[in-house]
Write a structure and sequence with these properties.
The protein is mainly α and 281 residues long. The chain is built from 14 helices and 2 strands; from the N terminus they run H-E-E-H-H-H-H-H-H-H-H-H-H-H-H-H. Helix content is 79%, strand content 1%. Strands 1-2 form a two-stranded parallel sheet. It is globular, with a radius of gyration of 23 Å. 27% of the residues are buried.
Length: 281
C-alpha cells in the first residue's frame, strides 16, 4: 500500500465518526422531511408545494423572510465592518477584552433579548417615545409589531457573528500591504478598497452567508418582536405544525427554506472560488 493510500485511509477513518453523526442527525431527518412534504396526497404528490407557490399570502411570507435576511445582513455588515476593522488594527492589550464584550449578546438567551426589545419598542417604551418626540412618527406609533423593529432586534442579535467573522479575516491581512498602497499615492480610503476589502472578500461573504441564513430561519425574535404581524417562514412553520397540525404543508415550507439556504451557500462557494481564481491570475 502506497503512502498516499495509507494517508487516505487514515483520513477516512478520522472523518467516519463525524460523517456518520452528520448523516444520522441531519441528513436522515431532512430525507424524512422531504418524504413527508411530497406524500400529500399519498403515496406521492406535490399538493403542498402547489398550495404554497399558488397562494399570494405564502409567497408574501417568503418575500418577507428574504427581505428580512437581506436587511439584517446589510445592517450587520455596515455596522460590523468598521468595528471589526478597529478591533483588528487596535494595538492595545485590551483588544481581547473588547472582542469579548462584542460577543456579549450571544451570552443571553434569544428569548430574553427579544423581551428586552419588546419593552423598548412598545408604545410607551424608550425607543418608541424618542421617535414620537422627534415628530417623525405619529404620537401613538410603536416599533413593536413592525418589520423595522424585527430588523433592529435581529441585527443586534446577529451583529457579533458578523464582527467575529470579519475580525478573523482582517486580523490576518498584513498592514504593510495597505502602507505600500498609500506609499504609491493611494489615499487611505482607496487603499482600504483596493487592498483590505478585496483581501477580506471571503470573510465578508462568509459573514453575510451566516447572518442571512440565520435571519431567514429565525423564530424567537420575529415571533416575539413582530407579534401577530410576524409573517415569516419560521413562524408559519410553527403555526402549521403545532396549531393547525398540517405537517405535510409545514414540511414543504421547511424544504423550501432549506433549498434557499443551500442555494445561498452554493452561490457563496462559487463566488469564493471565482475570487481565488482571479487572485491567482
Amino acid at each position: 500500500m502506497t503512502s498516499a493510500a495509507r494517508r487516505g485511509l487514515i483520513a477516512a477513518g478520522l472523518l467516519a465518526p463525524a460523517a456518520l453523526l452528520f448523516a444520522v442527525l441531519f441528513v436522515w431527518p431532512q430525507v424524512g422531511l422531504l418524504g413527508l412534504s411530497i406524500g400529500n396526497p399519498p403515496p406521492f404528490g406535490l399538493a403542498s408545494y402547489e398550495r404554497f407557490l399558488g397562494d399570494s399570502y405564502y409567497l408574501g411570507v417568503l418575500g418577507n423572510s428574504l427581505a428580512l435576511g437581506v436587511c439584517v445582513t446589510l445592517v450587520t455588515l455596515v455596522l460590523g465592518f468598521p468595528l471589526a476593522f478597529l478591533l483588528a488594527r487596535a494595538e492595545t492589550r485590551w483588544t481581547g477584552l473588547l472582542l469579548l464584550l462584542t460577543t456579549f449578546p450571544l451570552w443571553v438567551s434569544a428569548v430574553v433579548r427579544s423581551f428586552a426589545w419588546m419593552v423598548l419598542f412598545y408604545r410607551g417604551g424608550t425607543v418608541s417615545r424618542l421617535l414620537q418626540g422627534s415628530g417623525l412618527v405619529p404620537p401613538d406609533y410603536q416599533l413593536l409589531g413592525t418589520f423595522s423593529g424585527v430588523v433592529i432586534a435581529l441585527a443586534q442579535v446577529l451583529l457579533p457573528i458578523m464582527i467575529l467573522t470579519l475580525y478573523a479575516v482582517l486580523r490576518s491581512i498584513d498592514r504593510d500591504l495597505e502602507h505600500a498602497a498609500m506609499n504609491l499615492g493611494a489615499p487611505p480610503a482607496v487603499a482600504m478598497w483596493l487592498v483590505t476589502i478585496r483581501l477580506a472578500r471571503g470573510g465578508i461573504l462568509a459573514g453575510c452567508l451566516l447572518v442571512f441564513s440565520l435571519s431567514v430561519s429565525a423564530f424567537a425574535t420575529p415571533s416575539l418582536v413582530g407579534g401577530a404581524r410576524a409573517h415569516f417562514m419560521a413562524v408559519t412553520i410553527y403555526e402549521q405544525t403545532l396549531e393547525l397540525l398540517d405537517w405535510p404543508f409545514a414540511a414543504a415550507i421547511s424544504a423550501i427554506l432549506l433549498v434557499i439556504a443551500l442555494t445561498v451557500a452554493m452561490t457563496y462557494g462559487r463566488l469564493l472560488g471565482e475570487g481565488r481564481e482571479a487572485a491567482e491570475r
